[in-house]
Specification:
Helix content: 25-40%
Shape: globular
Order of helices and strands: HHEEEHEEH
Number of strands: 5
Number of domains: 1
Distance between the termini: 27 Å
Strand content: 15-25%
CATH superfamily: HIT-like
CATH class: Alpha Beta
CATH architecture: 2-Layer Sandwich
Strand order of the largest sheet: 1-2-3-5-4
Structural class: alpha+beta
Length: 139
């Protein structure tokens, strides 16, 4: 089930506004968040357009959480954060997804809640490509 107004469903121009598709996981897509004030920030988006984790079967939920775990392990290996914050919002987007936000002791927002889109740090295409390769190498 897809929603033609949803960036996670349709990808392309809608997704390009804030993210870069990295790869498909078991039941999710892994997306690099373009705003990189927290190096390595990604989104794990469920394959179907559902709003809540309670809208999927136990088996699918377990696979989704396995995808989140796999992505988190890759972030830890690639970027060595002190902590990864996990955020599941979707108040307006209504597509099940989770933000994985690496946090670095002494860094921006350490000890607090991450901003959804601080709009501070954007990279070159080459820097995004290098970051994506680091993540893929650790999946």
């Amino acid at each position: 089930m897809k929603d033609t107004n949803c960036a996670y469903c349709m990808r392309g121009e809608l997704l390009d506004k804030f993210g870069i598709f990295i790869c498909d996981l078991q039941v999710s897509s892994l997306i690099l968040f373009k705003e990189q004030s927290k190096p390595g920030r990604v989104i794990v988006a469920y394959k179907d357009h559902v709003s809540e984790i309670v809208n999927i079967s136990e088996e699918e939920r377990n696979l989704f959480m396995a995808d989140v775990t796999r992505a988190a392990k890759a972030l830890h290996a690639a970027f060595k954060p002190n902590k990864v914050n996990y955020g599941a919002y979707g108040d307006t987007g209504c597509h099940l997804h989770m933000h994985l936000v690496p946090k670095y002791e002494g860094g921006d927002e350490w000890g607090g809640i991450f901003q959804m889109n601080p709009g501070k740090v954007y990279l070159t295409d080459a820097e995004y490509a290098e970051m994506i390769e680091k993540i893929k190498a650790n999946l």
